[in-house]
Design a protein that fits this description.
CATH topology of one domain: TIM Barrel
Strand order of the largest sheet: 1-2-3-4-5-6-7-8-9-10
CATH class of one domain: Alpha Beta
Shape: globular
CATH superfamily of one domain: Aldolase class I
Structural class: alpha/beta
Order of helices and strands: HHHHEEEHEHEHHEHEHEHEE
Radius of gyration: 20 Å
Strand content: 5-15%
Helix content: 25-40%
Largest sheet: 10 strands, mixed
CATH architecture of one domain: Alpha-Beta Barrel
Oligomer: single chain
Length: about 350
């Protein structure tokens, strides 16, 4: 039996941290010793603010440009209408098989396991998602589609954040998936242990490790400053339990759009046992244009990190295009001629 890593918190600590999340811009500004006067922050955002205290503790006081702060604080720029940015740029409505279930790619399906997150990232590609149409009870009826399709080998839990579910409900969902004989992999997309590392507990690890399914946790780190001692302990415990750990980042203007920051992130992830997997071009979602990084800049940055890191630390630069059979790998060869390119933002 693999010895477990002792966790320095109680199993329910994360729920206390979640309930204490900061939801008002002024409160966040006060905590960080910043002023709202003359700034570009929006105290009344249409997409609510939500930031847990453990994440705030990693932000620099007195620094409006802190890369963690920029990811979570509402800005007036979110209310600016920009051509080419739309509510559902990935056309997820057309990928829906049933309430709570989508299939974008062959052999795998995505379960909308929860409608909330522990943190509301301002660049969220599902900030306009109709979660009310995707609710389901504890019988998880959407899994009937999975049972009827033997080509499906992997179930991906997404949301919202699937780890916001109580352990009891998550355990029932995993057991239902486990009972489908042709499914052999369970993938969990989560940012919750990044912002509240206390979410990783012994009961959760038992759920993820004691299944016949091969479990993969895909975390969402965008900056090395998001990794502190508690985060390291949490992911070490997952790794010790035999869970595969990957990371997907989003390339964000003012957060991680330089090669030094991206290299630091890859190095920091590997130090805690997480393999950098994807670096996404940001999706063109309404209200997120101020985060956009142009494809030319993205390719240049990717080349730079390739020249500085071993191959296994270089995430794949990708973008998601509706209707394609897989995410598209972005390289210099994939760029259209400048005269025909519609992507002019840098």
């Amino acid at each position: 039996m693999i010895p477990s890593i002792p966790l320095p918190w109680q199993p329910k600590t994360w729920q206390t941290q979640l309930s204490g999340a900061v939801t008002h811009v002024k409160d966040l500004a006060d905590m960080l010793e910043l002023s709202l006067d003359g700034g570009d922050w929006d105290p009344n955002p249409a997409f609510p603010m939500r930031v847990p205290l453990p994440y705030i503790s990693r932000m620099r006081r007195g620094d409006r440009s802190d890369p963690l702060l920029r990811q979570v604080v509402p800005e007036l720029a979110e209310k600016v209408s920009v051509l080419g940015f739309e509510p559902d740029p990935l056309q997820e409505a057309s990928a829906t098989l049933a309430p709570g279930l989508m299939q974008k790619y062959r052999g795998r399906v995505l379960v909308i396991a929860a409608e909330n997150c522990a943190v509301n990232c301002r660049y969220c590609f599902r900030r306009n998602f109709p979660y009310a149409h995707h609710r389901h009870d504890s019988t998880f009826p959407m899994l009937n589609h999975v049972r009827d399709d033997p080509s499906i080998r992997e179930v991906i839990l997404s949301g919202g954040d699937p780890l916001i579910m109580p352990d009891e409900r998550l355990s029932i969902l995993v057991a239902n998936i486990e009972d489908i004989p042709h499914v052999n992999r369970l993938r969990i997309h989560t940012r919750l242990p990044v912002v509240i590392p206390q979410r990783i507990s012994d009961p959760l690890i038992k759920i993820l490790a004691n299944t016949r399914l091969t479990t993969v946790v895909v975390a969402h780190f965008n900056h090395a400053n998001e990794i502190d001692e508690n985060v390291s302990v949490a992911f070490a415990a997952l790794r010790q339990a035999g869970i595969t750990l990957l990371n997907q980042s989003v390339l964000l203007a003012g957060v991680n759009d330089n090669d030094v920051t991206l290299c630091d992130l890859s190095e920091a992830l590997f130090e805690i046992g997480i393999l950098p997997y994807y670096l996404h071009l940001p999706d063109r979602v309404t209200g997120t244009s101020h985060f956009h990084v142009g494809i030319d800049t993205a390719v240049r940055l990717h080349r730079a990190i390739q020249s500085k890191l071993p191959g296994y630390l270089v995430p794949k630069l990708v973008q998601e295009t509706p209707g394609r059979p897989a995410k598209e790998l972005i390289t210099s060869d994939s760029l259209p001629p400048a005269s025909t390119r519609i992507d002019t933002l840098v």
